Each structure stands twice: as C-alpha cells, then as structure tokens.
Amino acid sequence: MRLRGRKGIRESLESQPELVVLDAAPHRGNWREFFGNDNPIYVELGMGKGRFISEMSYRNPDINFIGVDMYDELLRRASEKARAIWEQKGVDSPPNLALLRANIEGIETMFAPGELERIHLNFSDPWPKAKHARRRLTHQRFVEKYIELLNERGEIHFKTDSQSLFEFSLNSFADMELVMRNISLHLHKEGPREDLVFTEYEMKFMEKGQPIHRVEVVIGAEALHKHREAKRLAARREAAEAASGGDQTTEEEIQ
C-alpha cells in the first residue's frame, strides 16, 4: 500500500503523544501505565483509517484499545476519526485509546506475554498467492505469537470478506487445535449486526450485499472455561425444553 500523506504529517503525529505512539518499545509490559488504569487491553492489528477502533473505544470506556498500523498517513486519519467520534462526549482526546505506528511482524516487541485480552483482525490483507501464505496474519507463526501475548481471558476475533483467507484461517486454527465459536459465513445475511462495530470496508461490503465471514477463537484458560460452561448450560436448556415439549425453562430448572 502506498499512501500520499499531507505535508508535515510526522510533526502532526509527534504533537499528539497522549494519543499517538511512535515507539512501542518503552511501553512493552507497561501499557497500563500509559492508560493510567488496569482495564483490559484490546488490540486491532491493521486498523486502517481507524473507524472500528475509535468506535469501540467510544462504546466501551472501561476497556483500553490500541490500534496498530505502520503508515503515518493512516495514523493521521485515525487520530482525526477518533477525536471526531469522542467530540460527541465533549472529549478532545480519547482517554482509553492509543494509535500505535508499528510493523505487526514485530508484535512480540510491542507487548509483553499476557498483556493483551483480545486481538481483532479485521479485513487483513489476504495475500492470495500461495508463496505469500506466511504473511497472512492468521498463519500459525503469527497465531503462536498472539497466544503468547494473550492473558487467561484472551480471544482472537477475525473478520474478512475473503473466502479463501477465511478457509485458510479456519484450517490454521483447527490445525493448532484451537477452540472456535460463532463461525459465520455471511455475518449480515439477516441484516446489519448492530451489536457489532463496523469497519469502513465492512460498510461498503454490506451495501453491496457481499458476505462477511467471522469467527471468534477462544485462547485463555478462563475464556475456555466460560465457553465450555455456556455450551453445557445451552445443552441442558435444550434437553430440558425438549423434555417439557418446547416450553421455556428457567435457569434454576436447568441447574
């Protein structure tokens, strides 16, 4: 990707240290000090123009968000997007958002083991040629790094419009024996999922009726336990309703 940036873009980024981070190294293992709290940290790898990560930070003030991209121009656009969204609350700079300029290849130099709670991969470059498979952000060599950085509640949430990348990713997760849930081959088939935040790409694809594929990968021990408990309760509820002829059952009856 080649982006034509505005004149003085670097100076603009350097003037926003409360929002834009140009060097992750000093913050590795200390991101909670940057935010000034112990809230969970969610990261979007490849944030583009920043709509998703900015809206997520606005909707979830008790979670810290970090958007990562390697292009100065995208960081500039994302910073403008974030400030515009937060102006609705009369806030000049989002208190729970950082925009990090970095190459995802070195993600282990940006975050310490167990420092993250969720990783979002939205419409990543599909790298369609087989010889470029290792560059895909859902390739095992990247996923192994994600697993190291995620904590006991860790998850990976992945969305793409590329069927080939989605198939590759599902196989990659399966080969690593990872637990997947909420697999969707056409996320917005019944209409826009208003409970989810859309990226710029996603909004364009939805207008065209193009399928969006999505999956959640459960990584951390606590997240896995919660997932299995939810499945157990769902199975008991289904069995109880079948036994009662389809009547609704209460949580106490299921327990």
Task: Describe the SSE topology.
Layout: H1 9-14, E1 20-21, H2 31-35, E2 41-45, H3 51-59, E3 64-69, H4 72-86, E4 97-101, E5 116-122, H5 140-149, E6 150-160, H6 163-175, E7 179-184, H7 200-207, E8 213-218, H8 221-243, H9 251-254
Parallel strand pairs: 1-4, 2-3, 2-5, 3-4, 5-6
Antiparallel strand pairs: 6-8, 7-8
Helix pairs in contact: 3-4
Return Rg in Å: 20 Å
Largest sheet: 8 strands, mixed
Find the count of extended strands (DSSP E, 2+ residues).
8
**What are the low-pLDDT stretches, counting only 5+ consecutive residues below 50?**
none
CATH topology of the largest domain: Rossmann fold
For this structure, what is the CATH class of the largest domain? Alpha Beta
What fraction of residues sit in β-strands? 15-25%
Span from first to last CA? 54 Å
Question: What is the strand arrangement across the widest sheet?
Answer: 1-4-3-2-5-6-8-7
Structural class: alpha/beta
Task: Please provide the ordered H/E string of secondary-structure elements.
Answer: HEHEHEHEEHEHEHEHH
Coarse shape: globular
Mean pLDDT across every amino acid position: 92
Number of separate domains: 2
Instruction: Specify the helix fraction band.
Output: 25-40%
The assigned CATH architecture of the largest domain is 3-Layer(aba) Sandwich
Q: Number of helical segments?
A: 9
CATH superfamily of the largest domain: Vaccinia Virus protein VP39
